[in-house]
Amino acid sequence: MTHHPPPLPKTTQFKRLLLSDQVEFFCEAHNGLSAKIVEEAGFKGIWASGLTIAAQFGVRDNNEASWTQILDHLEFMSDATQIPILLDGDTGYGNFNNMQRLIGKLEQRRIAAVCIEDKCFPKTNSFLKGETQPMADIDEFCGKLKAGKDAQADDDFCIVARVEAFICGWGLTEALRRAEAYHQAGADGILIHSALTTPDEILAFKREWGERCPVAIVPTRYYATPTDVFRQHGFSLVIWANHLLRASVTAMQKTAQIVRDNEHLLAVEDTIAPLSEIFRLQDAETLQQAEQRYLPHSSDHLTAIVLAASRGDELGELTEDKPKTMVPVQGLPILSSIADAYRAVGIHKITVVRGYKKEAVTLPHLTYVDNDDFAETGELVSLLHALQAQQGDFHDTVISYGDLLFNKYIPQIMIQEPDDWVIVVDSCWDRTTSYTRLGGFAECTAPNSREAYNARIYLKRLGRDVPHTARHGIWMGLLKVSANAAGYLHDLLVELLADPANNKAGMAQLFQTLRARDCAIRVLYTVGYWLDINSLADVLQANAFHSTPPTLERVASPSDPARRHERAPLAGQATMTEQPHGGQNA
Ligand code: SPV
Ligand code: MG
């Protein structure tokens, strides 16, 4: 593992760059994003330009934005980067007193250095009628520099004094006189500015100035000068002062016009940064990792598996071109309602095992796993496919069938129990008229009763051969497996399915095996809140599922199909076709 030493304080980084014996390059940035782009480009420092920060606010470079607004803005730039920021501090936003307060606030925000210019507040940009601009009184400006140096708490914090003599129409003598005074007042460096398109002024200054202290330049106007000239003259800092803002203005103007003219995005999509690049620059990934660490794992650590590989022949032509899970009930495919119930309790990773007419199972935001051998295999093979797709990254998982409708209450009560294995048993099994397919009769350690309210009840056995007197209910077709047990389940299925005789095995066989191995299967009792779809009649009946709240009249009418799995047990409906759920793909 490579070990990165902590970065030097930004002030120290800046001071070293200023004093280094080679020329260093700073690039302008005007917000957190551009600051980060400067850093990623490999620059060792950032020029927080007064012009471009004002421009990105949409105001003039005339101190129209307040100094505290600049400060807040700088905080984003500083937080986004590790390299030092040299603030273009205009004239210091006031007198020596304002300067002192500014230095304190900059240090708090880890700004490495500030440059102040010898003009008057409110200043005007150097390229706007420079020769008409008044300069600051030398002594007043020196007092400001001294006050700033006295205010800094960090010895490495630097103050650069910017000489505007050339800009304001004065000559070399005045420039040198001022630079010397500022140097004597404690400035750590001089920025000599020029509005000429040739470097004559700044080169003349540097020849006379020599090495008295480091000198910075801003070649915005004399941009054609070869950089080697600056190098040979021994400048310390070259500042590319406004180029990212100008580049982005051109790009934004072009893009805005194209989108406006085309009323379409196709012409720009490939010419602009993809969203993924924006997320990368924002470091969205670190937050995602932090969420894993700090957020309650309620939803992220829950998954569901829907076994939906079989056709559902019993629905006849309804399943000619799609499997049962896609048959509409109340206007929605069954699978859609299942997914909604899971999502309602925070389960968003839902894996669906497809088989028959898999191309018809394409609902969005679901993960699909295919059991192409669905005709020759059973539920356990499908389940193993789904578990294998988790690639060892197991979570608490609710497993259910693709033709089973249930209220969100059902997965809710299952996931809140910490047990490794949890099933829901409907204790009112004998009130229903026809089960062509049953989850299986359950014999439990205790029947559903008022006393059972607080008790922990477990499964003793499950299957169609549980004698009538021992039946405490029917298994509804849902199983919750804890993250811990999911790996065990995977291995168990691999073991069971190694025997080809088990190829068509269903969930009932899984429960038998778990019981045989002394796995405790927690039972939660419920009455109703679910419905499985096993016939055309079920489809019709299901259209009343959940629809109307029961009225006295409806509850009193046991023939009402909508009552099929509702809470009040209905008399006289004990005829059952005892077929277990197991042995076929749901
Ligand atoms: C700035 O970038 O704001 C500067 C440099 O001060 S200049 O615009 O050239 O004055
Ligand atoms: Mg400026």
Describe the structure in your own words.
By secondary structure, the protein is of the alpha/beta class. The protein has three domains: 10-242, TIM Barrel (Alpha-Beta Barrel), CATH 3.20.20; 251-294, no CATH class; 298-567, Spore Coat Polysaccharide Biosynthesis Protein SpsA, Chain A (Alpha-Beta Complex), CATH 3.90.550.10. Helices cover 35% and strands 17% of the residues. The chain is built from 20 helices and 21 strands. Strands 1-2-3-4-5-6-7-8 form an eight-stranded parallel β-barrel, surrounded by eight helices. The longest helix is centred in the middle third of the chain and has 20 residues, at 243-262. It is elongated and about 110 Å long. Mean pLDDT is 89; it is low at 547-586. The structure holds sulfopyruvate and magnesium ion.
Counting DSSP H or I runs of 4 or more residues, the number of helices is 20
Give the assembly state of these chains: single chain
Largest sheet: 8 strands, parallel, barrel
| First-residue to last-residue Cα separation | 49 Å
CATH topology of the largest domain: Spore Coat Polysaccharide Biosynthesis Protein SpsA, Chain A
Strand order in the sheet with the most strands:
1-2-3-4-5-6-7-8
Mean pLDDT: 89
Counting helices, strands and paired strands, the structural category is alpha/beta
Q: What small molecules are bound in this structure? A: sulfopyruvate, magnesium ion
Radius of gyration: 38 Å
What is the top-level CATH class of the largest domain? Alpha Beta
Q: What is the CATH H-level superfamily of the largest domain?
A: Spore Coat Polysaccharide Biosynthesis Protein SpsA, Chain A
In one word, what is the shape? Answer: elongated
